Amino acid sequence: MSAIGYARISTAEQNPALQHDALTAAGCTRVFADVASGAKADRPQLAEALDYLRPDDILVVWQLDRLGRNMRHLIDTVNTLHDRGVQFRSLRENIDTTTASGRLTFHMFAALAEFERDLLRERTTAGLAAIAARRACGRNGGRPRKMTPEKITVARQMYGSRDYTVAQIARTLGVSRGTIYQHLNQHAT
Questions:
Q1: Selected catalytic residue, list 10, 90, 101, 176
Q2: Mean pLDDT value across the chain
């Protein structure tokens, strides 16, 4: 059984020494380290560390956010480790899946993450249903258009008279030149 460490810093200006020292003090025989944003999926040293691990090894991180891009990624990574017979330990959060309380703590994190996903899914479904109901009543959401049919008619008349530039028409109607061009082009097609 070997303890293998993984450290990650977000930028090259940061110093990984704190993580490295903590992992070494925790008994890690080897430490893999990446310089990458937490949101970045491509972390070659993490991939190498995961490949290096064997059954009965322990992957040790300084804190949870060093390993996972988000809670779902963290849970998936730890579950994959568990399926391979590899344990997980986070020093700052005091999570150690080699113990019953550590497994319980991790599963509570996993349950909370799943609960959060379910709530998000419910809110999204409710929001989409509300939008559909408003549309059924003839009310569309979103920002009101600046170019009303009356303004479009005025813009086309002003443009057609050749007495006004597009910039003058836009200024008069309180819109951008691009908006004027967009509506003039729609009329042309």
A1: 10
A2: 86
